[in-house]
UniProtKB/TrEMBL annotation:
InterPro entries: HTH_17 (IPR041657). This is Helix-turn-helix domain-containing protein. Residues 37-84 form the Helix-turn-helix domain.
């Protein structure tokens, strides 16, 4: 067993840093709009074609703020997954 001795000021500074880190993790909510790579990760698909098909068929919401930038609504992806969930017996 090792014992580490630090000054009182250093201890409280470290303690404050730990609290800030924990509070930041608790307060951070996932982003509403995500990129295609993250959307494919949530959906567990590897093909951008499949993602485009879901988008074209209106199964997931998306926004296109610029010509080559497409972002996806995380909530609609989760709703799509829930809609296709199978109930257990």
């Amino acid at each position: 067993m090792e014992i580490v001795c630090i000054q009182e000021e250093a201890f409280y500074a470290l303690f404050d840093k730990v609290l800030e880190h924990v509070e930041a993790k608790i307060d951070s909510k996932p982003a509403k709009w995500i990129d295609g790579e993250e959307a494919m990760g949530i959906l567990k698909i590897k093909s951008t074609t499949t993602l485009q098909k879901l988008r074209d068929e209106g199964k997931i919401r998306f926004s296109q703020p610029q010509k080559k930038i497409i972002i996806y609504d995380r909530d609609s992806i989760n709703e799509y997954i829930e809609k296709h969930a199978r109930e257990t017996f």
